[in-house]
């Protein structure tokens, strides 16, 4: 087997000493070689930082352990201009990030972050630089500016330190495979050629993985087929089975694959558990409660599924079916989240207090679902109202929660309060069909007929529209939109330049994106609203899809849902990802909509799903109207 080598940035000895090199930065460690499980002392001088002259500073250390990502608080004591604190480094840490803060003001070292690797006997531990590179990949989650160059350099450091004459580790190549640097891509392709011809299953498996990282799914599938024939009981065959399980949407097929996979003595336990999660949720959503309960018993810890269970229970309540089962499921989620509130454990880059606060928000959502189920069952209206009232008070006029609260108020005879809270919510720009219907029932209860209701409703909506436009006026921008030409689903080119003079709505989306799909029914209503306006054009740009064969999947999704959208398909960028135009628009998350005026300038950038069809239509309509002015 040929040995594949990467260019070394620095000799290994120098790398070991360079890992936590400390220039003259405000934060310093009293040890150059921090170790897991040992005490670490930090010094901090706020002079010249965003925290200068602020009191009561504190620090947090975020551990990169590739598992739970816990957080520790560091109490800081001040002595003159210097702040000092101490913490015992988490046992599982491979690298860590320190943030110093006062309330919402954070010193993040001018975006570079205070990032350090873990040592053992003054040498970086295995995976330390991979963990550090991960920080610069996820970036903003830790208030660090994403830096692909720094991440690549760290991956290469890991390879240099850990290779010791062996073949380089796959993750480093996989990261380089998506680099825009032609030299790095060429190095990866050379590695793939060598790996394919090495004559070992491990090398062939690495080649398959790298082809996938380069978005060359057809070549990866072809090599996988060869590997399965050559090594029918090996890792390639097992990986193919895993991939087949997670890519198919057929529940029965998933079940049969699981039965086959779980009987393999070499099956990966974590993958088996993940499969049971998919089957549990799949059967629950398919309303096969017997199979759902069967697979649920196999899951070690279902707490991470509380949100999914709550969603199913809520959907059943809306549909008015399986109400006893929905009540039982909802009560389980409440008990589970309550236990985690009472015994919070830091994870997912959240402190114990932050996680507790987030779980309390989830508890409100689950309690709202439970109270709504009781309403739909027609039992214990008084008890349900008692549960819902404090949730509504904390909800800041959430449309769904307001609707449920209003329905319970009405069920308990308080139409006056129900009317008041519905009016306030609609005027706040959060109208829904359910709220409108509930308000009409209140109007009928008070007036005995619906005479005058349309005028009354129009007045409320006028207040909402005016308030929404005043808020949008503060968000207006005026920057040139990137020029682009993309093909539609029939292969016809469409350019932004050809639409000059029109107000153009560009909506970036993907078939795997839940919020994108949730917003589309509302966007269809908006498209219908403006279909006779020759000066308004909607473009739905599909981007960030996985693999090479996404076009048929995009066509099927649009066809199955009967959307009359003008869909364009983004092209691949230099890294091989379907992200050329979405990258030019600097999109960070989807769905993201851009409203472009007749002069080709972006006037609005709108991120996310607005929560209901009515809210989507209202937001898009107001932005279009204002962009036309």
Task: Describe, in plain words, how this protein is organized in 3D.
With 629 residues, the protein is α+β, with helices and mostly antiparallel strands. The longest helix has 26 residues. Helix 17 crosses helix 18. The protein is built from 23 helices and 18 strands. 50% of the residues lie in helices and 14% in strands. The radius of gyration is 28 Å and the shape is globular. It has three domains: 141 residues, Immunoglobulins (Immunoglobulin-like, Sandwich), CATH 2.60.40; 215 residues, Serine Threonine Protein Phosphatase 5, Tetratricopeptide repeat (Alpha Horseshoe); 150 residues, Glutaredoxin. The N terminus is likely disordered. Strands 1, 2, 3, 4, 5, 6, 7 and 8 form an eight-stranded antiparallel sheet that branches.
pLDDT < 50 runs, ≥5 residues:
1-18, 167-171
Looking at this structure, what is the CATH superfamily of the largest domain?
Answer: Tetratricopeptide repeat domain
CA-based shape: globular
Q: DSSP strand (E) fraction?
A: 5-15%
Total count of domains: 3
Supply Rg: 28 Å
Task: Quote the CATH topology of the largest domain.
Answer: Serine Threonine Protein Phosphatase 5, Tetratricopeptide repeat
- Overall mean pLDDT stands at 88
Q: Major β-sheet, in short?
A: 8 strands, antiparallel
Which structural class is indicated by helix and strand composition? alpha+beta
Helix content: 40-55%
Q: End-to-end distance, in Å? A: 68 Å
Q: Give the tally of β-strands.
A: 18
Which CATH class of the largest domain is shown?
Answer: Mainly Alpha
- CATH architecture grouping of the largest domain: Alpha Horseshoe
């Amino acid at each position: 087997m040929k040995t594949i080598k990467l260019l070394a940035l620095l000799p290994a000895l120098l790398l070991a000493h360079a890992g936590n090199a400390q220039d003259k930065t405000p934060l310093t460690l009293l040890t150059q070689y921090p170790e897991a499980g040992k005490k670490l002392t930090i010094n901090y001088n706020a002079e010249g930082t965003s925290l200068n002259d602020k009191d009561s500073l504190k620090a947090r250390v975020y551990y990169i352990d590739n598992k739970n990502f816990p957080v520790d608080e560091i109490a800081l004591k001040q002595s003159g201009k210097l702040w000092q604190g101490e913490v015992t480094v988490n046992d599982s840490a491979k690298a860590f990030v320190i943030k110093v803060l006062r309330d919402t003001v954070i010193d993040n070292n001018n975006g570079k972050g205070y990032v350090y690797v873990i040592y053992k006997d003054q040498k970086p531990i295995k995976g330390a630089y991979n963990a550090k590179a991960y920080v610069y990949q996820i970036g903003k989650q830790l208030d660090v500016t994403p830096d692909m160059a720094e991440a690549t350099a760290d991956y290469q450091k890991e390879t240099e330190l850990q290779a010791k004459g062996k073949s380089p580790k796959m993750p480093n190549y996989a990261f380089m495979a998506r680099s825009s640097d032609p030299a790095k891509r060429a190095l990866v392709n050379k590695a793939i050629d060598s790996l394919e011809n090495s004559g070992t299953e491990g090398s062939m498996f690495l080649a398959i993985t790298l082809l996938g990282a380069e978005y060359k799914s057809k070549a990866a599938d072809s090599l996988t087929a060869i590997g399965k024939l050559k090594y029918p009981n090996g890792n390639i065959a097992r990986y193919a089975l895993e991939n087949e399980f997670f890519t198919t949407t057929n529940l029965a097929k998933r079940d049969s694959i699981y039965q086959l996979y779980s009987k393999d003595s070499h099956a990966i336990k974590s993958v088996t558990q993940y499969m049971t999660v998919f089957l549990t949720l799949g059967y629950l959503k398919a309303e096969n409660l017997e199979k759902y309960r069967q697979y649920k018993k196999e899951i070690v810890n279902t707490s991470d599924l509380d949100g999914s269970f709550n969603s199913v229970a809520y959907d059943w309540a809306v549909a008015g079916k399986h109400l006893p089962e929905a009540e039982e499921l909802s009560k389980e989620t409440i008990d589970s989240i309550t236990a985690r509130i009472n015994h919070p454990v830091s994870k997912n880059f959240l402190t114990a207090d932050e996680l507790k606060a987030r779980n309390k928000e989830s508890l409100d959502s689950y309690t709202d679902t439970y109270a709504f189920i009781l309403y739909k069952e027609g039992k214990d209206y008084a008890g349900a109202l008692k549960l819902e009232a404090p949730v509504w008070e904390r909800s800041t006029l959430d449309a769904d929660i307001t609707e449920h609260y209003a329905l319970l108020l009405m069920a308990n005879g308080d139409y006056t309060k129900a009317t008041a809270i519905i009016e306030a919510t609609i005027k706040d720009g959060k109208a829904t069909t359910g709220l409108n219907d509930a308000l009409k029932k209140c109007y009928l209860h008070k007036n005995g007929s619906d005479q005058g209701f349309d005028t009354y409703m129009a007045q409320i909506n006028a207040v909402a529209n005016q308030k929404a436009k005043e808020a949008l006026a503060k968000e207006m921008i005026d920057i040139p939109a990137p020029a682009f030409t993309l093909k539609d689903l029939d292969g016809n080119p469409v350019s932004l330049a050809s639409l000059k003079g029109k107000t153009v709505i560009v909506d970036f989306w993907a078939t795997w994106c839940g919020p994108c799909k949730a917003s589309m029914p509302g966007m269809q209503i908006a498209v219908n609203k403006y279909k006779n306006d020759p000066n308004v054009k909607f473009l739905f740009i599909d981007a960030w899809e996985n693999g090479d064969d996404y076009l048929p999947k995009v066509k099927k999704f649009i066809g199955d849902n009967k959307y009359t959208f003008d869909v364009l398909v983004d092209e691949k960028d230099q890294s091989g990802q379907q992200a050329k135009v979405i990258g030019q628009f600097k999109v960070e998350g989807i769905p993201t909509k851009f409203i472009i005026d007749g002069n080709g300038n972006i006037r609005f950038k709108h991120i996310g799903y607005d929560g209901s069809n009515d809210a989507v239509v209202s937001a898009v309509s107001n932005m279009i109207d204002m962009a036309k002015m």
